[in-house]
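Internal QA ticket QA-208
Title: Verify multi-chain structure generation after dependency bump
Assignee: T.L.

Test input:
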Amino acid sequence: MSPDSVRARDSSLRRLRTVNRVVIGGAVVLTGLLSDVAANAFPGHTRRASAATIPATSTGTSAGTGSGTPATSSSRHRSRHHSLQPPAQAPSPQTATAPTATAAPQPVAPSAPVVSGGS
Amino acid sequence: MSATSAIAAEVSTLSWDALGTSVVLRHTGPAQPALRTAVEAELTAIDEVASRFRPDSELRRLSSDHPQPISPRLHEAIALALRAAELTDGAVDPTLGAELIRLGYDRDHSQLTAVDPATSLSPPRILATRTRRPAWAEIELQENPPRVRLPAGVVLDLGATAKALAADRAAAAARRAAEDPPHTGILISLGGDIALAGPPPEEGWAVHVTDDHRDGPDAPGQTITLHTGGLATSSLTTRRWRTGPGPHDAHHHILDPATGREAAPVWRTVSVAAATCADANIASTAAVVLGDRAPQWLERQGLPARLVALDGTARTLGGWPA
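Actual output:
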């Protein structure tokens, strides 16, 4: 084999190696992208909650809160509902004024406070 | 179903009965019939899927131990109930339906034998505490398509959270149905569970907290002003029934998952304000169950709350007005 032929062969092999690397790298990136697209396009998942075992107590008043491993669930669920949310504005003392009313007496008077209690 | 309507210059109020309790719809601006229609549609929809007492409800048709398709609305109600259980480490447990039935709460409360309101709250007779893994942690809930698998023998009771969810949804629906949604403020009270939507009146919404929402604004309690979010009150003085003449035959509806019996009476009534009525209801129910540990737990949650002890002494937390 002539030196020119050897050089040509080596050059072709190098080009082939480069092409292989590009193709493999591209395939890896494309696989990742398609996986992400598929995960977002088909969000169905099974959520199975887990929780600490409720401990036995002698008083019978325990509900297990604060004494065990915190409950866990899927990350998607947890990211939406990680804690109870306080109001944007806390309740304030009652103001003196009330909306004006024109109607006759009613079971719920228009200007009377709405009642929150057990039901 | 009875209804009353009153039109005020700035605020309109409607009240009627639904879901076995009273509904109050109050909104800024003149009366708009479409708002009540929207509220009623939401209440009917939640009743059809989540009622434990309607034989035709979707909840009643659920069987346990195998996956089954459910409606998106029931999925939402169950997801909220599981969220309540998770965030309270099981203090608010939706899987106590069988225990409630065993205690006699097997039909609408109006059909049960009432307890004399003067009957004192006494600790339940506890036979054993539970050490097994809670059943709610075994529920498998799938979002898309919505499906659920309940552990064998589990009977769901979504009563606490579903009512609050209905109030939140009804307030949002009423606002959407308003002629001018951006400028219409809505207050919905569903048996004393209150949800707000939209801009409140300039002076805010006046709300009186007391033991029983049926007692009216003159009952002992406190009147406050709400601007956003929701408010819920849980009380051991209401929804009580009797299964016999004995001292342990008087029951109430808030159960301690650790015992499967009524929560021990530490707080008579707990009111909590939160970003939604659902969150407020979760916290107020949990506080009743937690008893002595409730104040510390509520402070960790950062929620404004008012707790009334058995002797009537009120304690306020988290920015609740004194």
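Spot checks passed. Chain A touches chain B through 67 residues (CB under 8 Å).
Status: verified.
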